[in-house]
Amino acid sequence: MNAKEMISRLRNSYDSGKTRPLDYRIEQLKKLKKMYLENQEVIVQALSADLHKCRHESIVMEFMFLVNDLDNILVNIKEWDKPETPEKPFVNILDKLYVFNDPYGVVLVIGAWNYPFQLLLMPVAGAIAAGNCVVMKPSEVASNSAKVISELIPKYLDNDCYQVYTGGIPETTSLLKEKFDYIFYTGSSGVGKIIQEAAAKHLTPTTLELGGKSPVYLDDSVNMKTAVKRILWGKLANAGQTCVAPDYLLCTKNVEKKFLEISREILKQWYGDETNKSLDFGRIINDAHFQRIQKLLKSGSVAIGGNILPSERYIEPTILVDVKPTDPVMMEEIFGPVLPIITIGNLHDAITFINKREKPLAMYIFSKRKDDVNLLIKNTSCGGICVNDTIMHLTVDTLPFGGVGNSGMGHYHGKYTFDTFSHKKSCLYKNLGVIGEKLGESRYPPFNERKTKFLMTLLKRRAPMSFGFLRYVLAFGLGAASIFMYYNSQGMIRKG
Fold first, then answer.
1. What would the pLDDT profile of 153-210 be if each residue is shown by its tens digit?
2. Which residue of 142, 211, 283, 315 has the smallest Cβ count within 10 Å?
């Protein structure tokens, strides 16, 4: 089935109203969860084949991420789907206001190769929950995972409403020529611009989850061993192939010395003397990316690591020092197990350095100095911030996840995914009574000064009424009633 036929099939299904009933959506989400639970080992094996991803990372950072997300949706979808009732202005005091959650229609979700299941199927779950029909495009770079997705989805989900479209650049280019009602893309900033350009031809709204060089600021106020472990874990998970991985470290020369000393100790604890023999460390996805990262190793000086095995696409966890802002490693997102250190004099140097570059997807601040943390937060711009840890803000589904500027637009996770794939359709339900009509009749001709002034008064925005004072009135009333009852009872006793 070609792209045009696939989208036509889904369009017919959507127009029939098939995906709108809440019970249908819940049924499909339960089937998606069943697909995960029945195929955990298949998913783990595919990730191992594509990325040499260890079992622990596959289960925690892909499988359980998806299962937990679905559980959250299933628990909350009925509440999320209810129309919202916003606050009413004074002029609408007799009316009713609603905001309905309307599905967009036929949406396209394009996944990424570094987390091939999570980054495709997590937004898909939100799109299904919102009532859309979905075309899923897995990344062809993670070919084993793409094959598993294309084989499993048709076995579990309704083929009339949810389809997988596979292929490389030519197929994706063909797909983007078609009209969608929404496009959700995860990947590089360069491809994100192509997606945005294609979407603009049809005025299609988009969410772009891109990347960028996510900085880490580290000072000497923290428990250095804990900080080093958390920074290295965020850098080396999935062999550094994570869109929010720490991309470079900003610290003073003194902190750099401590960081390197502890890093040597930690890396040996984690991976032994020969990291390439560790079952817990991954590999670079393909030769092109391996060669790209290999060239970046020539920036600055290698303080730790630096060894490679081209036959395995293995790059040892590497820390670079004496790095200049103009070095190649600082000119692009690394997306590999290489951490350059840029030495700074103070906090203000860090702020200046960050602000001179494109806005990152994430920023990490390691400091116990609250004033310094607040200064960094208020004077920089990024997609999201995690203080005293890395990556973990992604796991909080009540926080929106997304970029800004070059690192993307829009956000998702938890209810934010449901909202991303829902058009907020407003509705004003006017009162037809005599009083409502009397208040509104000044809008009708013939006009005069009296009508104009009345409408200006009626339409003037006022601060919302606060009913907090009622608790004091209630407390006073209860107190007065208690006193009255007490004296009344005393009188009855005396009479008796």
1. 999 999 999 999 999 999 999 999 999 999 999 999 999 999 999 999 999 999 999 9
2. 283
Residue showing tokens 């996805």: 285
Strand ranges inside 176-291, DSSP E: 182-186, 206-209, 214-218, 246-251
161 touches 133 (CB < 8 A)? yes
- Evaluated on CA atoms 191, 192, 193, 195, the torsion sign reads positive
Rounded Cα distance, 108 and 202, in Å: 13
Give CA–CA dist 418/424, Å, rounded: 11
Query: What is the average pLDDT across 208-231?
Result: 97
Confidence (pLDDT) at 455:
86
Active site residue 427: no
- Mean pLDDT of all residues in 28-57: 97
Distance CA 101, CA 103 (A): 7
CA distance 135 to 153: 11
Residue 231, amino acid: I
Secondary structure class of 414 (helix, strand, coil) = coil
274 is annotated as an active-site residue: no
Name the token pair of 213. Answer: 């060089």
- Catalytic choice (209, 256, 316, 333): 209
β-pairing, 246-251 vs 301-304, is unpaired
C-alpha 481/C-alpha 376 separation (Å) is 55
Mean pLDDT of 279-285: 96
| Pair type for strands 362-366 and 214-218 | parallel
**Is the pTM here over 0.85, yes or no?**
yes
Give how far the C-alpha of residue 351 lies from the chain's centroid of Cα atoms, to the nearest Å. 24
Secondary structure (3-state) at 58? helix
* Residue 467, pLDDT above cutoff 50: no
Strand order in the sheet with 408-409: 162-164, 133-137, 106-110, 182-186, 206-209, 408-409
CA 276 to chain centre: 32
C-alpha 390 chain-centroid distance = 15
Q: What distance in Å separates the CA atoms of residue 37 and residue 22, rounded to the nearest whole number?
A: 23
Phi, psi of 358 (to 5 degrees): -60, 150
Picking from 30, 137, 12, 130, the residue whose alpha carbon sits closest to that of residue 74 is 30
Contact criterion met (CB below 8 Å) for 344 and 217: no
Predicted confidence (pLDDT) per residue in 348-370, tens digit = 999 999 999 999 999 999 999 99
Is 433 or 22 the better-scoring residue by pLDDT? Answer: 22
* Distance (Å, whole) CA 330 – CA 2: 41
Residue 490's pLDDT is 56
3-class state of residue 197 by DSSP: helix
Q: Map tokens 């092109």 to a residue.
A: 288
- Choice among 54, 133, 161, 243 that is catalytic: 243
Task: Give the distance from CA 329 to its chain's centroid.
Answer: 26
Roughly what angle, to the nearest 10 degrees, separates helices 3-15 and 169-176? 40
195-211 residue pLDDT tens: 999 999 999 999 999 99
